[in-house]
Amino acid sequence: MGGTEGTGRPTHTQPRAATSFSPLPDLLDKVFMFPQETKDSHVLVRAKPEQLLQNFTGCLRSYTDLTRPYSLFSHATKAQDNEILLLKPKPGEYQLYVGGKFVSFGIPKNIAVSKHVCTSWESTTGIMGFWFNGKPWPHKGLLKGYTVGVEVAIVLGQEQDAFGGGFDTQQSFVGEMSVVYMWDMGISTSGVMEAMNNRPDKAPIFGWRNFPYQIVGKVYLKP
């Protein structure tokens, strides 16, 4: 299947799955819908940090009734496929990976409830932050002194086991995802609350109000 760009003109590439491009729209009041389990459907975030990351914060909202493991946010480099990864291995737990290592955060085991999650990490101390529906969880630590590389592939809804690919159907996301932001700095709990409401008080690397995305396969942008 060929791809389509924002102009609507067909192209003649032959990707693994149907692909569509967008300019940088405001996605306020919209969600990405991942309606079924697939081996390749995902959203590619078409933004890249311009320098090595010493700090980051990432936020997103998801809604699903999955009980198996699934990937929400996968940020890979050619050297490390799990450079940054937000994975939900089971109800009641999130795992945040940095540099291939992870820490776990426990949450209430509610199924089919909209969940807003923010995570942060800083290199100088290795301290990780985690917010669930705006509430801060106790900090943890991982990989003090590490640096997150550049030349990245950022994917929503699949886990990369190789740079830009290596997806596993059994880790694919099924549900709705929205309000995705990433910063190259830490943010406060008040900043998390602002992001939840799509009013971030600090400029992100990318964000939902000006979101650079490419849909691959059976993912749909809906109100």
TrEMBL record:
Annotated segments matching region Disordered: 1-22
GO-annotated cellular components: extracellular space
Gene Ontology biological process: acute-phase response; innate immune response
SMART domains: PTX
Localization of this protein: Secreted
Keyword Calcium: yes
Cofactor annotation comment: Binds 2 calcium ions per subunit.
Top-rank taxon, per record: Eukaryota
Cited PROSITE patterns: PTX_1, PTX_2
UniProt xrefs under Gene3D superfamilies: 2.60.120.200
Cofactor(s) the protein needs: Ca(2+)
Biased composition (Polar residues): 10-22
Domain Pentraxin (PTX): 28-223
Keyword list, A-Z: Acute phase, Calcium, Disulfide bond, Metal-binding, Secreted, Signal
MF annotations from Gene Ontology: complement component C1q complex binding; metal ion binding
Intrachain disulfide bonds: 59-118
Record InterPro entries: ConA-like_dom_sf, Pentaxin_CS, Pentraxin_domain, PTX_dom
Assembly with partners or alone: Homopentamer. Pentaxin (or pentraxin) have a discoid arrangement of 5 non-covalently bound subunits.
Family stated for the protein in its record: Belongs to the pentraxin family.
Protein name stated in the entry: Pentraxin family member
